[in-house]
Amino acid sequence: MVLDLDETLVHYDMATKSFATRPFARNFLRNMAKHWEIVIFTAGLKDYADNILNDLDPNNYISRRFYRDSCKVVEGVYIKDLKIVN
Predict the structure, then answer these.
(1) pLDDT tens-digit map of 1-59
(2) pTM score, whole prediction
(3) Angle between helices 46-56 and 25-33 (to 10 degrees)
(4) How many CA within 13 A on the CB side of residue 59?
(5) How far is CA 29 from CA 39, 56, 63, 67, in A?
């Protein structure tokens, strides 16, 4: 199962420079990990994403993480190409 980070699992507030976890996101990860390999693919930078994911997933339900450096840039837009996930 491939999930995006921002606006899917968390909401980042640029004004306060903080994030809010979506309700039941941790329960969702725990329950889905029983049936699926969970992969995060974000256009966010590694340091930003790891900071949030380490807090969100202390039990390591997420098995793989892909960041901005794994995206393709098309006309200035970051595109997540799922071919690299396999």
Answers:
(1) 999 999 999 999 989 989 999 999 999 999 999 999 999 999 999 999 999 999 999 99
(2) 0.90
(3) 80
(4) 11
(5) 10, 9, 11, 19
